Amino acid sequence: MQKLKSIFISSYCTYLTLVTLWAGYQYLQSDSVAMAVIAIQHLVGASFFASLFAVPPARTSALLPNWTIPALMLAFAGGYQGYMEGSALVVILAAVGWLGWSLYLFWYSSFGGKRNDQLVLGQTLPEFTLYQSDGKSVSASDFQGKPVLMIFYRGNWCPLCVAQVKEISGMYQQLADMGVEVCLVSPQPEENTQQLADRFNVPFNFLVDKDLATAEAFGIKAEGGTPAGFEALGYDSDTVRPTVLITNSKGELIYSDLTDNYRVRPEPEEFIKVFQQAGVA
Length: 281
Description:
Layout: H1 2-30, H2 33-54, H3 65-84, H4 88-108, E1 129-132, E2 137-139, E3 148-152, H5 159-169, H6 172-177, E4 181-186, H7 190-200, E5 205-208, H8 213-218, E6 221-222, E7 239-240, E8 243-247, E9 253-258, H9 268-277
Parallel strand pairs: 3-4, 4-5
Antiparallel strand pairs: 1-2, 1-5, 3-8, 6-7, 8-9
Helix pairs in contact: 1-2, 1-4, 2-3, 2-4, 3-4
């Protein structure tokens, strides 16, 4: 299913771009109102994905109403105008455009509410081994006696993940004053992780989960979760489900966020409250 999703998202983004350009050209050639509406409808979707890379947010709402409502209205308008102009193709494009957006919202964005029995509040984390960009291994024992904030992100290719890392990097002094060890974990290649560490230049642990061994042990592996085509950039087809874990100084899990929607992620202020409630000064 995840492999199908990876093909879908790459194909859908390509479809939005091509139809926007084609319909816009057809409008210029014929002054067809239906083609203008179809071009704008698909431009809405294309603009959303472009905005994720242009001004990456750390999170979004689940249903994206600011984008979804215009997309729905334009789909109806395009279908109606296509019917009035006697163009079956326009009606089909309007329907396909809305279907694609619906699949993105309700199917692609969701992990399906998968139950996790490996990460249980009050218990210690399963054994794990992660790696620094220089190849040195790190395990739970290296953080013994310290509260830990562990964020699993998909990689530098994911704009929301990079925005989340940027956001938490801006809080490094507050977390350092509380004695919190921050671990930012990704299955991406070491050089990509080092690039991100150099970019933000904060005293965090930027770690690599080789072969997604830790993600699998934690039950947060997303097989086929990388969009199709990113393998050409050196990323593996499998990735990790964006996850936030907090452990206390005893190594016990006191907070977990295993989002069911890759765009819906917790606010960093929530982490601070968890540490404060756990007695971390």
